[in-house]
Amino acid sequence: MPIRDWIGRDVKKWLVPLALFIAGVTLFIGVARLSEYSWGPVLTTLKSVDPTLAILTLALLSGVFLCAAMKWRIVTEAQCGPSGSLFFYFRYISLAVLVGQVFPLSLTNSSIRIYALKRQANHGIMTTAGLFLWDQLFDFIALSILMCIGVVYVFGNLPLVMTLGLVLGSGFCIIAGMNLLTATIQITIKLLCSWERIPEKKRIRLGQLTSDLLSVQVARKLFSLAMIKYMLSAAVYTCLFSLCGLHTMLFDIYWAAPTAEMAGVLSQMPGGLGALDWTWVGALKTNGLDAKGAAIAVLSMRFLLSSAYVIVTGTIWGVHFVRSKKFIS
Length: 329
Known about the structure:
Low-confidence stretches: 1-11
Number of strands: 0
Number of helices: 14
Shape: globular
Radius of gyration: 21 Å
Helix content: over 70%
Number of domains: 1
Order of helices and strands: HHHHHHHHHHHHHH
Distance between the termini: 38 Å
Strand content: under 5%
């Protein structure tokens, strides 16, 4: 079989994922070089992991997956009606995150969602892709808010109480302004549907977006869950670095997490590889670590994070297989 037929007729579609993967690996190797390939401290860290803190990390990561699953379920049911249990969304979200450590983030996430809903309820590709974008919009808004607050906290030396006040205040303002956001989107869709320059098929698809999906109630739920998701995610990173022995800068790590995650998301590299790691190196250096120490801590964190993804995803799918009796004779 010719290699061209094996990878598909359109070879170009593989170039972007391949380029992102190579770029991510190259940047990650740069972090490893910065640590002077000192794997001894990394192994020492991994051998001295606190079991209680490790279990807490896995629980928090499960909470991140659960929030993402709830968001996905809300947008799907608002547009298409009931399409599966929460556990269905939960296990495919965990799979998307795990596979996203190898392939570009959004491409992997959307592809697995399309596959899952096509298999479960025969939903169309364009419908699922549109729901994914609507879901991710609120992730981006929430992460942007937390990132801005984190930057102000780190560089403005804000008291913790004032920082929490900023989180609550900004969250309340966004929730209160959801009427304006949803109204603007609805008006924009109506204008696009009436614009004859847009192909008729696309106008029909835009017109099929239900009022339930674009409702204020759904938008508020999605934003609230997105905020909780990324606050839990920041707690995951805090626990991971605590497992690596960094106990004196936990609040700084917590508020640096949104910026690191945003770097990973915007880079679209597999698992944020490279972009996420270099952002963490910079954040740790800002808090007093030297370049080598920061790189060693990031390498340890990355290994622990990957292990956590495997453990949580494996557990979720193991429960699924047992429940469905696939391995029971």
